[in-house]
Amino acid sequence: LKPQAATMLFTALREKFPDLPLHLHTHDTSGAGVATILAAARAGVHIADAAVDSMSGMTSQPSLGAVVASLENSPLDTGLSLREVSELSEYWEGARSLYAPFEATATMRSGSADVYVHEIPGGQYTNLHFQAFSLGLSDKWPLIKEKYAEANRLLGDIVKVTPSSKVVGDLAQFMVQNNLSETDVLERADTLSFPRRSSSTLRV
C-alpha cells in the first residue's frame, strides 16, 4: 500500500463510515511502510500495526519507533515513550540474534520497491522463497517474482491473502519449472497439468 493510496483509501472510508474504527495492517517490504502509516493516520485510521524497531522492516511491519517519533508533539501523538520503545527494541535485538540461522535474508537484505510490481504479500514472501529453495529454484528467484505478477494477471488480479496468495505462488513456480509464459498458459491450458490449487481457481 503506497502512502498516497492509503490517503485516498482511508479518507474515503472515513467519509463513508465516520464512526467505524479503521485498522491498517501492512508490511514494510518496499521500505515505505512508515510513510504509509503516517499517511493513513492523517487520513483517519485509528489503529496501525507496527513492529519494535529491531524486528521491523522488510517483510515485517514498519518501525514502531519511527512512527512514534514522527508523530510526537502533533495532534496524532501516540502517547508512547520513544525511550521505552527503544529499550524494548534493544531487548528484542538480543533475542533476535539467537534466531539468526533462520533469518530469511538469502535474497533480501533491505527493502525493495519491486513489491509494487510483483505484489507478493509480505507474509508470503519469505515462505515462497523457502518453497523455491526446496524445489531447487532458489537461483531463479528473480524469475519467480516476475512470474508471480504474470500468474496474478492470469488469475484475474485477485486479492492476495491466504489461501489465494498460495494459488498465485503455486502457479508462478509451475510456470518457472516448465518454462511457460503467460501466452503459453493461455494457449496450452487444456493440456497442462496445473497445481491443484491453481487449477481449481482457473476453472472458476
Kindly, what is the distance between the CA atoms of the first and last residues, rounded to a whole number of angstroms?
27 Å
Which ranges are low-confidence, i.e. pLDDT below 50, for 5 or more consecutive residues? none
- How do the strands of the widest beta sheet line up side by side? 1-2
Shape: flat
What is the count of helical runs? Answer: 10
Q: Could you provide a short overview of the structure?
A:
The chain has 204 residues and is mainly α. The chain has ten helices and two strands; from the N terminus they run αβαβαααααααα. It is flat.
Descriptive report:
The chain has 204 residues and is mainly α. A two-stranded parallel ribbon has the order 1-2. Strand 1 (23-24), helix 2 (33-42) and strand 2 form a beta-alpha-beta unit. The relative contact order is 0.09. It has helices spanning 3-16, 33-42, 64-71, 82-97, 115-118, 122-134, 141-154, 164-177, 182-187, 196-203, and strands spanning 23-24, 47-48.
Keywords:
204 residues, 2 strands, single chain, two-stranded parallel ribbon, mainly alpha, 10 helices
Topology summary:
Layout: H1 3-16, E1 23-24, H2 33-42, E2 47-48, H3 64-71, H4 82-97, H5 115-118, H6 122-134, H7 141-154, H8 164-177, H9 182-187, H10 196-203
Parallel strand pairs: 1-2
